[in-house]
Write a structure and sequence with these properties.
The protein has 160 residues and is α+β, with helices and mostly antiparallel strands. It folds into 2 domains: 115 residues, HIT family, subunit A (2-Layer Sandwich), CATH 3.30.428; 31 residues. 30% of the residues lie in helices and 17% in strands. It has 3 helices and 5 strands, in the order E-E-E-H-E-E-H-H. The structure holds zinc ion. Zinc ion binds next to loops.
């Protein structure tokens, strides 16, 4: 259940990251409006604790964060009624874990591009792509099975 925005402990004590216009405090995050005239209703959802990599959030907290994300998305969709709502977790400029929720107006068709062209410029050869895909796949299997052997982990790192 959202708590009053006035309860917010912002900016972040570790990195000073803050929201432009705080809307609500959710279970484990804060929701704020992002100033972007191209996408009315664009928001940021910021994890309460200072964490710089989503993968390091304990699974239970990550699930609660995703619950907040869904809650925020439903609220934005109810108000803005977008053609499409995009979610972005980047951290390139501000490392504090936060999602961008980007509603595309009903009149827009720009969201139909696969990904923004600026993220598609540095493609590797198919062989290098396949090798990397194989290593990520192996690591994914290792991460899901805590009892996996040290040899499998070494292979995943490409050292065996
Ligand atoms: Zn922070």
């Amino acid at each position: 259940m959202p708590r009053a925005a006035e309860d917010a402990a912002y900016p972040c004590r570790s990195c000073s990251f803050s929201l432009w216009l705080l809307i609500a405090r959710l279970d484990v995050s804060h929701l704020g409006l992002y100033d972007d005239a191209r996408f009315p209703g664009r928001c940021l959802l910021v994890f309460d604790r200072h964490v710089e990599d989503f993968s390091t959030i304990p699974p239970e907290d990550a699930a609660r964060f995703v619950g907040d994300l869904q809650h925020a998305a439903r609220a934005i969709a109810a108000v803005v009624k977008p053609a499409r709502l995009n979610y972005a977790l980047l951290g390139n400029k501000e490392p504090h874990v936060h999602f961008h929720l980007i509603p595309h107006p009903a009149s827009s068709s720009g969201y139909r591009r696969k990904i923004p062209s600026s993220l598609n410029a540095g493609r590797r050869s198919e062989a290098r792509y396949a090798a990397r895909r194989g290593r990520v796949r192996t690591r994914s299997r290792c991460a899901r099975r805590p009892g996996v052997s040290a040899l499998a982990r070494a292979k995943a790192r490409g050292k065996a």
